């Protein structure tokens, strides 16, 4: 008996479509917006740095205009300070009109060429015993030899004897320590010199 093999044949037709691959996941909206936000932050930082630089530049310019005084007005800082302290004046000689026609007690003479330093030291030393001692310049009086400073006691003295009496009271009893001198604008009075001792003076002690 002949076997029949039955073949089951699937019905043929158009192939079923292959399913498409799923699309890649899209980044969330927050990730897409991160780049613009970062650019905004950078722009703000740049603006802040620029503004700070401008502020410092303006401050520096303001200090220069004020003379670098840190807030003090420029006129005050730039104007030179004036000193109100004045050096002690050197003793000046008496004016001729004040002494002319008077007797003085001559205590010491110093050549003008010696300088004011030597003259000042000598005057300081004499003032230790005779505080009223002062200076005159002989060129101002014709009755004195020119070219000297005279340290003297002004008196007043009525004549040469009175001047010698003053000197004796201060221990000056020799011609090297004291002379009675007459001051005037006449060279004829040069000889009016009264020399110690006071008890028996020599020279001319009065002006007649």
What would you say this structure looks like, in words?
The chain is an alpha+beta fold and 208 residues long. It has a domain at 96-200. It is 32% helix and 16% strand. It is built from six helices and six strands. A six-stranded antiparallel β-sheet has the order 2-3-1-4-5-6, covered by helices on one side. Strand 5 (193-195) and strand 6 form a beta hairpin. It is rod-shaped and about 125 Å long.
Q: How confident is the prediction overall: mean pLDDT?
A: 75
Count of helix runs: 6
The outline comes out as: rod-shaped
Low-confidence stretches: 4-13, 60-85, 87-91
Compute the gyration radius: what is it? 57 Å
Distance between the termini: 206 Å
User: Major sheet: size, sense and barrel closure?
Assistant: 6 strands, antiparallel
The share of residues in helices is 25-40%
**Beta-sheet strand percentage?**
15-25%
Name the structural class: alpha+beta
Number of separate strands: 6
